[in-house]
Automatic annotation (TrEMBL):
<dbReference type="InterPro" id="IPR000792">
    <property type="entry name" value="Tscrpt_reg_LuxR_C"/>
</dbReference>
<keyword id="KW-0238">DNA-binding</keyword>
<protein>
    <submittedName>
        <fullName>Response regulator transcription factor</fullName>
    </submittedName>
</protein>
<keyword id="KW-0804">Transcription</keyword>
<keyword id="KW-0805">Transcription regulation</keyword>
<feature type="domain" description="HTH luxR-type">
    <location>
        <begin position="290"/>
        <end position="355"/>
    </location>
</feature>
<dbReference type="InterPro" id="IPR016032">
    <property type="entry name" value="Sig_transdc_resp-reg_C-effctor"/>
</dbReference>
<dbReference type="InterPro" id="IPR036388">
    <property type="entry name" value="WH-like_DNA-bd_sf"/>
</dbReference>
<dbReference type="Pfam" id="PF00196">
    <property type="entry name" value="GerE"/>
</dbReference>
């Protein structure tokens, strides 16, 4: 085995995203452990359920394990509906980080009588296992290699020695992921407590979080959901590598974008924020001036009113909205009537004074 592949595998085990998206690393691990029955088990991001990750195992494995999982006790041990499965996890957690072969613990009669064996292991042709395991604040992180009876390597095999060699990298990476999951959960709670509506994106434009304030606004402001795509584009623009230094050095909260929606005029304000791993993220705050709700305007009248508030003339409004000048003038008359204003200047002042 090329030592470079071993190094790349260890590096993948240490990454915050874990092993399973790295096809080359998974290939190396399958070769070293001589099985494609590889999977990872551990607490989910909230620390209340169990999660199963794998590249090639069927969904029946994850479903079977989840269905037999009972929860975490006061000491952080994983518990299952089968006492024998709970016992095995208690032994591994108590032993601390390490590589474990199930031969010293294996009791065929008890193992094959468990629900988890019937629902998860047996349908995937797993009769014996060895695992790299590390205790976490709640539960255990386990990288497991499964085998049939005729395939299982013994405790003196090169496969088990490879697993022992890889265990420190797996343990360090799994503990890091657990800490990041805890951080992200606390971070989400802090955003939800903020009185400002926020949408958060990573450097690739992937949505990370919509806080409680935004969710509440989306439920009461028709069409506000449409601002998410515009917010994603703004985030990508702000997070471009060549622009990061300038945005962080200058006024980062002043990167804005405006759009008109049926619920009113929406202002998106973007700012970078550090992230504990990888590139910075982008926080987009959302401010809505609810023209439609305040004056009973139609969605189109609201769009015209928002542009009147910005001082645009009829021709500019027609060009912006792709409608005729005659239609714009008709909408302007209705906006003036519904706002109780005598002229555009008065209407613009009233519209701009909205909270």
């Amino acid at each position: 085995m090329d030592v470079t592949r071993i190094i790349d595998l260890q590096r993948a085990l240490l990454q915050p995203d874990g092993l399973w998206e790295d096809a080359a690393a998974c290939d190396t691990l399958e070769t070293l452990l001589r099985t494609d029955k590889l999977y990872e088990v551990g607490p989910d991001g909230q620390g209340s359920a169990i999660a199963v990750a794998s590249r090639s195992m069927s969904s029946s494995l994850a479903t079977g394990i989840a269905d037999t999982f009972h929860g975490y006790d006061a000491d952080g041990f994983s518990t299952f509906v089968d006492p024998y499965a709970s016992f095995l996890h208690r032994v591994l957690r108590s032993a601390g980080a390490g590589a474990f072969h199930d031969a010293p613990l294996f009791d065929p009669e008890q193992r094959e009588a468990t629900v988890v064996h019937a629902q998860a292991l047996n349908p995937n042709q797993i009769n014996r296992q060895m695992a790299a395991s590390t205790p976490l604040s709640v539960g255990e992180g386990m990288l497991i290699a499964g085998y049939t009876y005729g395939e299982v390597p013994d405790e003196a095999s090169s496969e088990f020695n490879w697993l022992k060699l890889l265990e420190p990298a797996f343990s360090a990476g799994r503990k890091l992921r657990a800490e990041l999951q805890r951080y992200e959960a606390e971070w989400a709670l802090s955003l939800d407590a903020m009185p400002v509506a926020l949408i958060v994106f990573d450097a690739a434009g992937k949505l990370l979080h919509r806080n409680a304030r935004f969710e509440g606004m989306a439920a009461t402001h028709p069409g506000l959901e449409a601002c998410q795509n515009a917010a994603a584009r703004l985030a990508l623009d702000v997070l471009r590598v060549r622009r990061r230094a300038r945005y962080m050095a200058d006024a980062p909260l002043n990167v804005t974008s405006n759009l008109s929606l049926p619920c009113g005029e929406v202002t998106l304000s973007a700012a970078q924020a550090p992230w504990p791993h990888g590139d910075p993220i982008c926080l987009i705050s959302i401010d809505v001036k609810p023209l439609v709700r305040t004056f009973g305007l139609t969605p189109r009248e609201g769009e015209v009113a928002a542009r009147m508030a910005d001082g645009l003339q009829d021709k500019q409004i027609a060009r912006d909205l792709g409608i005729s000048l005659h239609t714009v003038r008709r909408h302007v008359e209705r906006v003036l009537s519904k706002t109780g204003c005598q002229n555009r200047t008065e209407a613009a002042l009233k519209l701009k004074s909205l909270p």
